[in-house]
Amino acid sequence: MTDTARGSSRRYGTRPTMKDVAARAGVGLKTVSRVVNGEPGVTPDTEHRVQEAITALGFRRNDSARILRKGRTASIGLVLEDLADPFYGPLSRAVEEVARHHGALLINGSSAEDPAREQELALALCARRVDGLVVIPAGDDHRYLAPEIAAGVATVFVDRPAGRIEADTVLSDSFGGSRDAVAHLLAHGHRRIGFIGDRPRIHTAKERLRGYRTAMAAAGLPVDDAWVSLGTTEPERVRTAARAMLDAPEPVTALFAGNNRVTVTLVRVLRQRTAPVALVGFDDFELADLVSPAVTVVAQDPARMGRTAAGLLFRRLEGADEPPRREEIPTRLIARGSGEIRPAHG
Amino acid sequence: MTDTARGSSRRYGTRPTMKDVAARAGVGLKTVSRVVNGEPGVTPDTEHRVQEAITALGFRRNDSARILRKGRTASIGLVLEDLADPFYGPLSRAVEEVARHHGALLINGSSAEDPAREQELALALCARRVDGLVVIPAGDDHRYLAPEIAAGVATVFVDRPAGRIEADTVLSDSFGGSRDAVAHLLAHGHRRIGFIGDRPRIHTAKERLRGYRTAMAAAGLPVDDAWVSLGTTEPERVRTAARAMLDAPEPVTALFAGNNRVTVTLVRVLRQRTAPVALVGFDDFELADLVSPAVTVVAQDPARMGRTAAGLLFRRLEGADEPPRREEIPTRLIARGSGEIRPAHG
DNA sequence: ACCCCAGGTGACAACGTTGTCCAGCGACTA
DNA sequence: TAGTCGCTGGACAACGTTGTCACCTGGGGT
């Protein structure tokens, strides 16, 4: 048994090509191509012979060759932060749905919040000649994509803006949503409100902090430095930050969580405490209404973000030649109880 | 302005090729190829000239052509049920992680539980000449994949077995997990236990039902037909089924939910009722410990399933020539409270 | 009877890359 | 000094498909 023998059955070379089909059907190569692509100009009789050869040989068109020839791949790339994060599930699903509607496949990868990996992935997708790219930025410099965009790769940034480059962008209203969230807590009598958010490098984290500060300022309230903590969403980090705020001499009476991972950790922290602390989280999550107290949130609409992004992308692909757009998706405060707790000594 | 003028900047044809780079660097085509692929046999000086030309022109290798030439695409396909379902997030992430480790990209799509769409997707991926395929079956006949598998596409089925075809498979221990879940309820004194599961067409639903029946039989208990309800996971369907069981003359005192979607709906149903009803769910979910009572579940390990599947796939790609394997991933009962409620008149 | 036309069909080049193979050139050895 | 070796570099074919164009055949019009 030679090694050729072993490998031969796995060789792509053994796959039948149009040439093989043509030979078997006794027709020309181009005729097979016509049948495969449903082009007109083939007698029913010929077509039948070709179809028969196709099934007999188990032929399947090699899209790699087709793509090479046609230039368009009918696929779009999606670079996101983490496929396993519940925020991105509906988003990717929405992108996929739109892509499917346009006959395109979705190729995706997770950057794990690492700018280098984001770039590596995005460029790998460009090398595959995806027609378009939906990117949830991990880094803040996307100039590396400029040549690709110039070469015709429609590119849309979602959830966070592109860095140092002009491009279509779809964002949640992080600032407005956060302002509303904090205003909600203020309206319920809180004066000392803590904010625990994601790393300051991340745009949405900054925007949400800005919303928090703006709401506090609008109420004429000072913000103690100890009330703000930005960092990773690791549960341990969040727990430590929360404890510091809650165990201070003048503890906060309410917390505003900068994202869904933080909110979940805070729910766990707060349930171990006796003193009631109000909580509002940015981004909704499943079962938020079932924990007790039910968690008040600023809901985003990830599916809509995905749909909007993919929509913009395909507009470009269809030739829309307008300056880059920036769509802002509104957020919605959903009051469920945890934000309505009044401060103990209100 | 002619239409050529409008479209020209978006044409792939305008992208520089190795030929262009070679011309600019004053070297041969193959030398550029060597530099791009880091092959030896190029003087530092020449290499430098080529690198310069590459950056100057913004060249990026066209992987379509490379794929066509080499036969291998360095990408694997993933066909799942719904990207937005929290069960599949960690699973796809795990597959992606392994793929990345092998230098492969992930192309994926959702079948939406529709066999026709599953087939369409899987075959589209094969036409793209993915090296391998991870499929979470929606249908129960996968003979359509036989030619592809024969042609060398490594294929692994996950979560549900392949239909009418032999192939590597990775499953959760649905039967054993369900038996344990029901045994747990029995141990807490329940005798009338309801099972609400997914559509009977789905293999895991059948297996979980079998586990339920086996546990009941082992305890010498009859199963009333009214205690079993299989169907979609639509909340409305599940609510109706639950109400019928709970409002019967001889109501069930405990419920076993066949999957995570059903469990969540049941939690909502039960919290509106005064009489305590025990609940165990198949498949864990985030915050299961935070609702009250905390939900006892049979936990699966989707990440491990994904890793195992991708592992099998790459073993095949690396030439493993063994008969199809069937890996069963054990489940784990996590008692949190909801399963430990004793029947009112126990 | 001739010409023309239309529709069906096939030969051939091209897409951009990689593998094969050979040529050129400088250096080292006998 | 001549022969040889090793290394760099390039010409060319091939991967499987599609677009272009020309050929052929048969039928209808004059």
TrEMBL record, chains A, B:
Positions of transmembrane segments: none
InterPro entries according to UniProt: HTH_LacI, LacI/GalR-like_sensor, Lambda_DNA-bd_dom_sf, Peripla_BP_I
Keyword Transcription regulation recorded: yes
Gene3D superfamilies: 3.40.50.2300, lambda repressor-like DNA-binding domains
GO terms of molecular function: DNA binding
UniProtKB keywords: DNA-binding, Transcription, Transcription regulation
Pfam families in alphabetical order: LacI, Peripla_BP_3
SUPFAM superfamilies hit by this protein: lambda repressor-like DNA-binding domains (SSF47413), Periplasmic binding protein-like I (SSF53822)
Domain HTH lacI-type: 16-70
Protein name per UniProt: LacI family DNA-binding transcriptional regulator
Organism: Streptomyces ramulosus
